[in-house]
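Tutorial handout. Part one gives the primary structure; part two gives the three-dimensional structure as C-alpha coordinates.
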Amino acid sequence: MLRKMLFILVASFMFMGVVSAASQWGSYKGFAIVKAFVSGKEFKTKSTPPIVVNGQPMVPLSLLKTAGVPYTYDAKKLTVNVNKAAVPADPLKGVLRTLGDVSFSMVGGETTAYVYFVRIDDEDRDWEMIDGKFMQLAKLNADRIEVRYIDEDGSELGTISIDRSTYNDFLNGKLADISELWTVTGNLFKPVLTSKEIGKLQNAVGVVLTYDEDGELLAQGSGFVIDDDVFVTNYHVVEGASQIIVRLNGTDYDITDWYYFEDEEADLYGVRLSTKYSVNGDPIGSSPEYSLDYNTAIPAIGEKVYAIGSPQGFENTLSEGIVSSIRAYDGMTYIQHTADIDHGSSGGVLLNEKGDVIGVTSMGVDGTLLEFAIPIKYVVQELNRLSSR
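Part two.
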Protein backbone atom coordinates (compact mmCIF):
# COMPACT_ATOMS: atom_id res chain seq x y z
CA MET A 1 0.00 0.00 0.00
CA LEU A 2 1.59 3.26 -1.07
CA ARG A 3 1.39 6.22 1.25
CA LYS A 4 0.50 9.63 -0.10
CA MET A 5 3.34 12.09 -0.13
CA LEU A 6 2.91 15.02 2.21
CA PHE A 7 4.34 18.26 0.93
CA ILE A 8 4.43 21.26 3.28
CA LEU A 9 5.47 24.63 2.04
CA VAL A 10 7.15 26.44 4.93
CA ALA A 11 7.34 30.23 4.67
CA SER A 12 10.44 31.83 6.15
CA PHE A 13 10.59 35.10 8.09
CA MET A 14 11.97 38.06 6.20
CA PHE A 15 13.37 41.18 7.74
CA MET A 16 15.12 44.42 6.77
CA GLY A 17 12.12 45.97 5.05
CA VAL A 18 11.26 42.80 3.06
CA VAL A 19 7.68 41.53 3.30
CA SER A 20 7.41 39.17 6.29
CA ALA A 21 5.95 35.67 6.17
CA ALA A 22 3.24 36.73 8.58
CA SER A 23 2.08 39.47 6.25
CA GLN A 24 2.44 37.19 3.23
CA TRP A 25 0.01 34.47 4.37
CA GLY A 26 -1.51 36.17 7.38
CA SER A 27 -1.17 35.38 11.07
CA TYR A 28 -3.00 33.36 13.73
CA LYS A 29 -2.75 34.51 17.35
CA GLY A 30 0.54 36.21 16.57
CA PHE A 31 2.07 33.26 14.73
CA ALA A 32 2.83 33.26 10.99
CA ILE A 33 0.50 31.05 8.98
CA VAL A 34 2.13 28.36 6.82
CA LYS A 35 0.57 27.48 3.47
CA ALA A 36 0.45 23.65 3.31
CA PHE A 37 -0.17 21.26 0.42
CA VAL A 38 -1.20 17.60 0.34
CA SER A 39 -0.21 15.86 -2.93
CA GLY A 40 -0.08 19.24 -4.62
CA LYS A 41 -3.50 20.41 -3.37
CA GLU A 42 -3.68 23.25 -0.86
CA PHE A 43 -4.77 22.16 2.61
CA LYS A 44 -7.46 24.34 4.18
CA THR A 45 -9.02 24.21 7.64
CA LYS A 46 -11.79 26.11 9.39
CA SER A 47 -10.04 25.86 12.76
CA THR A 48 -6.36 26.25 13.65
CA PRO A 49 -4.23 26.54 10.49
CA PRO A 50 -0.62 25.37 10.12
CA ILE A 51 1.61 27.92 11.84
CA VAL A 52 5.27 28.59 12.66
CA VAL A 53 6.27 28.48 16.34
CA ASN A 54 9.85 29.37 17.24
CA GLY A 55 10.90 28.79 13.63
CA GLN A 56 9.30 25.31 13.47
CA PRO A 57 6.20 24.47 11.38
CA MET A 58 3.27 23.11 13.41
CA VAL A 59 0.42 21.37 11.60
CA PRO A 60 -3.01 20.24 12.85
CA LEU A 61 -3.84 16.53 13.05
CA SER A 62 -6.56 17.09 10.46
CA LEU A 63 -3.77 17.59 7.91
CA LEU A 64 -2.46 14.09 8.61
CA LYS A 65 -5.94 12.73 8.15
CA THR A 66 -6.28 14.53 4.81
CA ALA A 67 -2.92 13.12 3.71
CA GLY A 68 -4.02 9.59 4.56
CA VAL A 69 -1.45 9.15 7.35
CA PRO A 70 -3.06 6.94 10.06
CA TYR A 71 -2.83 8.02 13.71
CA THR A 72 -4.57 7.59 17.06
CA TYR A 73 -5.19 10.40 19.57
CA ASP A 74 -5.77 9.79 23.27
CA ALA A 75 -7.54 12.92 24.60
CA LYS A 76 -7.16 11.83 28.25
CA LYS A 77 -3.43 11.14 28.06
CA LEU A 78 -2.89 13.83 25.45
CA THR A 79 -0.84 11.47 23.28
CA VAL A 80 -0.71 11.02 19.52
CA ASN A 81 0.52 7.80 17.91
CA VAL A 82 1.29 8.02 14.19
CA ASN A 83 1.09 4.58 12.59
CA LYS A 84 3.02 3.25 9.62
CA ALA A 85 0.93 2.36 6.58
CA ALA A 86 -0.05 -1.29 6.48
CA VAL A 87 1.83 -3.37 3.87
CA PRO A 88 0.49 -6.74 2.66
CA ALA A 89 3.89 -8.32 3.33
CA ASP A 90 3.05 -12.01 3.37
CA PRO A 91 1.06 -12.18 0.11
CA LEU A 92 3.66 -10.01 -1.61
CA LYS A 93 6.53 -12.23 -0.50
CA GLY A 94 4.69 -15.28 -1.77
CA VAL A 95 4.20 -13.75 -5.17
CA LEU A 96 7.79 -12.52 -5.34
CA ARG A 97 8.97 -16.09 -4.94
CA THR A 98 6.85 -17.33 -7.83
CA LEU A 99 6.85 -14.32 -10.17
CA GLY A 100 10.21 -12.71 -9.72
CA ASP A 101 10.18 -8.92 -9.76
CA VAL A 102 6.78 -7.42 -9.02
CA SER A 103 6.49 -3.64 -9.12
CA PHE A 104 3.84 -1.17 -8.10
CA SER A 105 2.82 2.14 -9.62
CA MET A 106 0.22 4.68 -8.55
CA VAL A 107 -1.62 7.04 -10.89
CA GLY A 108 -4.47 9.19 -9.62
CA GLY A 109 -4.70 7.21 -6.40
CA GLU A 110 -5.05 3.87 -8.24
CA THR A 111 -2.40 1.25 -7.48
CA THR A 112 -1.25 -1.16 -10.19
CA ALA A 113 0.81 -4.29 -9.55
CA TYR A 114 2.71 -5.36 -12.64
CA VAL A 115 5.28 -7.85 -13.85
CA TYR A 116 7.26 -8.27 -17.08
CA PHE A 117 6.85 -11.29 -19.34
CA VAL A 118 9.20 -12.23 -22.19
CA ARG A 119 7.22 -13.48 -25.16
CA ILE A 120 7.59 -17.05 -26.37
CA ASP A 121 6.36 -16.28 -29.93
CA ASP A 122 3.47 -18.69 -29.68
CA GLU A 123 0.29 -16.80 -28.83
CA ASP A 124 -1.47 -19.79 -27.28
CA ARG A 125 1.49 -20.54 -25.01
CA ASP A 126 2.03 -16.85 -24.33
CA TRP A 127 -1.54 -16.41 -23.19
CA GLU A 128 -1.42 -19.52 -21.01
CA MET A 129 1.67 -18.18 -19.24
CA ILE A 130 0.29 -14.62 -18.97
CA ASP A 131 -2.95 -15.92 -17.48
CA GLY A 132 -0.89 -17.72 -14.85
CA LYS A 133 0.83 -14.45 -14.00
CA PHE A 134 -2.54 -12.77 -13.51
CA MET A 135 -3.74 -15.54 -11.21
CA GLN A 136 -0.76 -14.86 -8.97
CA LEU A 137 -0.91 -11.06 -9.24
CA ALA A 138 -4.56 -11.25 -8.18
CA LYS A 139 -3.37 -12.16 -4.67
CA LEU A 140 -1.86 -8.70 -4.18
CA ASN A 141 -3.53 -5.73 -2.58
CA ALA A 142 -3.72 -3.57 -5.72
CA ASP A 143 -6.50 -1.91 -7.69
CA ARG A 144 -5.27 -3.16 -11.07
CA ILE A 145 -3.00 -5.97 -12.18
CA GLU A 146 -0.91 -5.78 -15.33
CA VAL A 147 1.53 -7.82 -17.42
CA ARG A 148 4.05 -5.90 -19.52
CA TYR A 149 4.92 -7.87 -22.61
CA ILE A 150 8.54 -7.57 -23.83
CA ASP A 151 10.75 -9.22 -26.43
CA GLU A 152 14.04 -10.98 -25.83
CA ASP A 153 15.95 -7.69 -26.20
CA GLY A 154 13.88 -6.06 -23.44
CA SER A 155 11.87 -3.81 -25.77
CA GLU A 156 8.34 -3.33 -24.48
CA LEU A 157 5.71 -4.55 -26.95
CA GLY A 158 2.63 -3.61 -24.99
CA THR A 159 0.63 -4.24 -21.85
CA ILE A 160 -2.48 -6.10 -20.81
CA SER A 161 -4.26 -5.16 -17.58
CA ILE A 162 -7.55 -5.54 -15.73
CA ASP A 163 -9.18 -4.50 -12.45
CA ARG A 164 -8.10 -6.97 -9.80
CA SER A 165 -11.61 -7.24 -8.36
CA THR A 166 -13.01 -8.01 -11.83
CA TYR A 167 -10.42 -10.73 -12.38
CA ASN A 168 -11.12 -12.26 -8.96
CA ASP A 169 -14.86 -12.24 -9.75
CA PHE A 170 -14.01 -14.24 -12.88
CA LEU A 171 -11.86 -16.69 -10.90
CA ASN A 172 -14.65 -17.12 -8.36
CA GLY A 173 -17.26 -17.82 -11.05
CA LYS A 174 -19.16 -14.53 -10.64
CA LEU A 175 -18.34 -13.53 -14.22
CA ALA A 176 -18.50 -15.94 -17.12
CA ASP A 177 -16.60 -13.83 -19.65
CA ILE A 178 -14.10 -10.99 -19.23
CA SER A 179 -12.79 -10.92 -22.80
CA GLU A 180 -14.15 -7.38 -23.28
CA LEU A 181 -12.88 -6.10 -19.94
CA TRP A 182 -9.14 -6.30 -20.55
CA THR A 183 -7.21 -3.14 -21.40
CA VAL A 184 -4.66 -3.95 -24.11
CA THR A 185 -2.08 -1.52 -25.45
CA GLY A 186 0.70 -1.83 -28.00
CA ASN A 187 1.69 -4.75 -30.16
CA LEU A 188 -0.24 -7.57 -28.52
CA PHE A 189 -2.23 -10.37 -30.13
CA LYS A 190 -3.01 -8.32 -33.22
CA PRO A 191 -5.28 -9.75 -35.93
CA VAL A 192 -4.04 -10.81 -39.36
CA LEU A 193 -4.70 -8.04 -41.88
CA THR A 194 -5.91 -8.31 -45.45
CA SER A 195 -3.67 -7.00 -48.22
CA LYS A 196 -6.11 -4.07 -48.57
CA GLU A 197 -5.65 -3.23 -44.88
CA ILE A 198 -1.87 -3.53 -45.25
CA GLY A 199 -2.03 -1.06 -48.14
CA LYS A 200 -3.55 1.57 -45.86
CA LEU A 201 -0.32 1.63 -43.85
CA GLN A 202 1.46 3.42 -46.71
CA ASN A 203 0.77 6.80 -45.06
CA ALA A 204 3.74 6.03 -42.78
CA VAL A 205 6.01 5.21 -45.74
CA GLY A 206 7.78 7.86 -47.80
CA VAL A 207 10.25 8.49 -50.58
CA VAL A 208 13.79 9.79 -50.04
CA LEU A 209 15.27 12.20 -52.61
CA THR A 210 18.96 13.09 -52.42
CA TYR A 211 20.79 15.81 -54.35
CA ASP A 212 24.41 16.64 -55.10
CA GLU A 213 26.07 20.01 -54.45
CA ASP A 214 24.76 21.33 -57.79
CA GLY A 215 21.17 20.50 -56.91
CA GLU A 216 21.03 17.56 -59.32
CA LEU A 217 19.13 14.45 -58.29
CA LEU A 218 21.66 12.00 -56.92
CA ALA A 219 19.56 9.04 -55.81
CA GLN A 220 16.09 8.00 -54.74
CA GLY A 221 15.05 5.55 -52.07
CA SER A 222 12.38 4.78 -49.54
CA GLY A 223 11.85 4.98 -45.79
CA PHE A 224 9.23 4.66 -43.06
CA VAL A 225 8.25 6.01 -39.64
CA ILE A 226 8.29 4.19 -36.29
CA ASP A 227 8.06 5.50 -32.71
CA ASP A 228 5.98 8.51 -33.80
CA ASP A 229 8.73 10.46 -35.58
CA VAL A 230 11.76 8.24 -36.23
CA PHE A 231 12.24 7.90 -39.99
CA VAL A 232 14.33 4.88 -41.05
CA THR A 233 16.07 4.24 -44.37
CA ASN A 234 19.29 2.69 -45.68
CA TYR A 235 22.61 4.41 -45.18
CA HIS A 236 23.52 3.87 -48.85
CA VAL A 237 20.42 5.86 -49.89
CA VAL A 238 21.71 9.09 -48.30
CA GLU A 239 25.46 8.49 -48.56
CA GLY A 240 27.33 11.39 -50.14
CA ALA A 241 24.25 13.62 -50.47
CA SER A 242 24.45 17.40 -50.15
CA GLN A 243 20.71 17.65 -49.58
CA ILE A 244 18.19 15.06 -48.34
CA ILE A 245 14.44 15.48 -48.74
CA VAL A 246 11.83 13.08 -47.37
CA ARG A 247 8.43 13.24 -49.03
CA LEU A 248 5.82 11.57 -46.84
CA ASN A 249 2.04 11.76 -46.81
CA GLY A 250 1.97 15.03 -48.76
CA THR A 251 4.67 16.82 -46.74
CA ASP A 252 8.31 17.47 -47.61
CA TYR A 253 10.88 17.29 -44.80
CA ASP A 254 14.40 18.63 -45.27
CA ILE A 255 16.66 16.43 -43.14
CA THR A 256 19.93 17.54 -44.69
CA ASP A 257 21.63 18.82 -41.54
CA TRP A 258 20.42 16.41 -38.88
CA TYR A 259 20.39 12.69 -38.27
CA TYR A 260 19.48 10.54 -35.26
CA PHE A 261 21.74 7.59 -35.98
CA GLU A 262 23.81 6.22 -38.84
CA ASP A 263 25.46 2.84 -39.21
CA GLU A 264 27.33 2.35 -42.44
CA GLU A 265 28.21 -1.26 -41.63
CA ALA A 266 24.59 -2.25 -40.94
CA ASP A 267 23.41 0.06 -43.77
CA LEU A 268 20.96 1.93 -41.56
CA TYR A 269 20.16 5.62 -41.20
CA GLY A 270 17.59 7.28 -38.97
CA VAL A 271 16.35 10.80 -38.33
CA ARG A 272 13.65 12.32 -36.14
CA LEU A 273 11.37 13.74 -38.80
CA SER A 274 10.21 17.34 -38.37
CA THR A 275 9.39 20.33 -40.54
CA LYS A 276 11.71 22.45 -38.37
CA TYR A 277 14.71 21.89 -36.11
CA SER A 278 16.37 23.89 -33.35
CA VAL A 279 20.01 24.98 -33.64
CA ASN A 280 20.87 21.80 -31.71
CA GLY A 281 18.94 19.58 -34.10
CA ASP A 282 15.95 18.97 -31.85
CA PRO A 283 12.63 18.61 -33.71
CA ILE A 284 10.48 21.67 -33.01
CA GLY A 285 8.16 21.62 -36.02
CA SER A 286 5.37 19.32 -37.17
CA SER A 287 6.02 15.58 -37.10
CA PRO A 288 4.37 12.82 -39.17
CA GLU A 289 0.80 11.94 -38.35
CA TYR A 290 1.28 8.19 -38.75
CA SER A 291 3.86 5.64 -37.63
CA LEU A 292 4.19 1.87 -37.71
CA ASP A 293 4.43 -0.75 -34.97
CA TYR A 294 7.33 -3.18 -35.16
CA ASN A 295 8.15 -6.74 -34.14
CA THR A 296 11.80 -7.57 -33.47
CA ALA A 297 11.33 -11.35 -33.70
CA ILE A 298 12.99 -13.00 -36.71
CA PRO A 299 10.10 -14.31 -38.85
CA ALA A 300 9.63 -17.97 -39.69
CA ILE A 301 10.35 -19.32 -43.14
CA GLY A 302 7.11 -19.44 -45.09
CA GLU A 303 5.55 -16.52 -43.23
CA LYS A 304 3.66 -14.07 -45.45
CA VAL A 305 5.26 -10.64 -45.81
CA TYR A 306 4.55 -7.35 -47.59
CA ALA A 307 6.93 -4.70 -48.92
CA ILE A 308 6.06 -1.03 -49.40
CA GLY A 309 8.51 1.27 -51.16
CA SER A 310 9.09 3.39 -54.25
CA PRO A 311 10.60 1.13 -56.94
CA GLN A 312 11.69 3.06 -60.04
CA GLY A 313 10.11 6.17 -58.52
CA PHE A 314 6.59 4.72 -58.24
CA GLU A 315 5.84 5.90 -54.70
CA ASN A 316 4.27 3.59 -52.12
CA THR A 317 4.07 0.44 -54.24
CA LEU A 318 2.80 -2.62 -52.38
CA SER A 319 3.99 -6.17 -53.09
CA GLU A 320 3.56 -9.42 -51.21
CA GLY A 321 5.50 -12.63 -50.82
CA ILE A 322 6.84 -15.01 -48.22
CA VAL A 323 9.97 -15.36 -46.12
CA SER A 324 12.07 -17.75 -48.19
CA SER A 325 15.08 -18.02 -45.88
CA ILE A 326 17.02 -16.45 -43.03
CA ARG A 327 20.62 -15.75 -44.02
CA ALA A 328 23.72 -14.86 -42.02
CA TYR A 329 26.48 -12.88 -43.67
CA ASP A 330 29.46 -11.01 -42.26
CA GLY A 331 28.11 -11.12 -38.71
CA MET A 332 24.59 -9.94 -39.61
CA THR A 333 21.27 -11.67 -40.14
CA TYR A 334 19.17 -10.98 -43.24
CA ILE A 335 15.58 -11.85 -44.09
CA GLN A 336 15.38 -13.35 -47.58
CA HIS A 337 11.90 -12.88 -49.05
CA THR A 338 9.94 -12.91 -52.30
CA ALA A 339 8.01 -9.61 -51.97
CA ASP A 340 9.18 -7.87 -55.14
CA ILE A 341 11.40 -4.80 -54.77
CA ASP A 342 13.46 -2.82 -57.28
CA HIS A 343 15.76 0.20 -57.57
CA GLY A 344 14.24 2.90 -55.36
CA SER A 345 12.87 0.37 -52.86
CA SER A 346 16.01 0.57 -50.72
CA GLY A 347 15.09 1.69 -47.21
CA GLY A 348 11.47 0.66 -47.63
CA VAL A 349 9.51 -1.37 -45.13
CA LEU A 350 8.97 -5.13 -44.86
CA LEU A 351 5.82 -5.95 -42.89
CA ASN A 352 4.40 -9.15 -41.49
CA GLU A 353 0.75 -10.04 -42.04
CA LYS A 354 -0.25 -8.16 -38.88
CA GLY A 355 1.17 -4.92 -40.24
CA ASP A 356 4.23 -4.87 -37.99
CA VAL A 357 7.60 -3.78 -39.34
CA ILE A 358 9.98 -6.74 -39.37
CA GLY A 359 12.65 -5.39 -41.70
CA VAL A 360 14.18 -2.66 -43.85
CA THR A 361 14.25 -3.65 -47.53
CA SER A 362 17.82 -3.17 -48.68
CA MET A 363 18.86 -5.17 -51.76
CA GLY A 364 17.92 -7.77 -54.32
CA VAL A 365 19.14 -9.59 -57.41
CA ASP A 366 17.81 -8.16 -60.69
CA GLY A 367 15.46 -10.44 -62.59
CA THR A 368 14.87 -12.74 -59.60
CA LEU A 369 12.82 -12.89 -56.44
CA LEU A 370 15.97 -12.98 -54.34
CA GLU A 371 15.19 -9.99 -52.14
CA PHE A 372 16.71 -9.14 -48.77
CA ALA A 373 15.78 -7.06 -45.74
CA ILE A 374 17.66 -6.00 -42.62
CA PRO A 375 15.76 -7.15 -39.49
CA ILE A 376 14.19 -4.28 -37.55
CA LYS A 377 15.96 -5.52 -34.41
CA TYR A 378 19.11 -3.72 -35.60
CA VAL A 379 17.20 -0.43 -35.72
CA VAL A 380 15.78 -1.04 -32.24
CA GLN A 381 19.29 -1.69 -30.94
CA GLU A 382 20.28 1.76 -32.21
CA LEU A 383 17.26 3.34 -30.50
CA ASN A 384 18.00 1.55 -27.24
CA ARG A 385 21.61 2.70 -27.38
CA LEU A 386 20.51 6.31 -27.84
CA SER A 387 17.94 6.15 -25.03
CA SER A 388 20.51 4.78 -22.59
CA ARG A 389 22.84 7.77 -22.99
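Part three, for discussion. The CA atoms of residues 207 and 222 lie 4 Å apart. The domain at 89-186 is CATH 3.10.310 (Diaminopimelate Epimerase; Chain A, domain 1).
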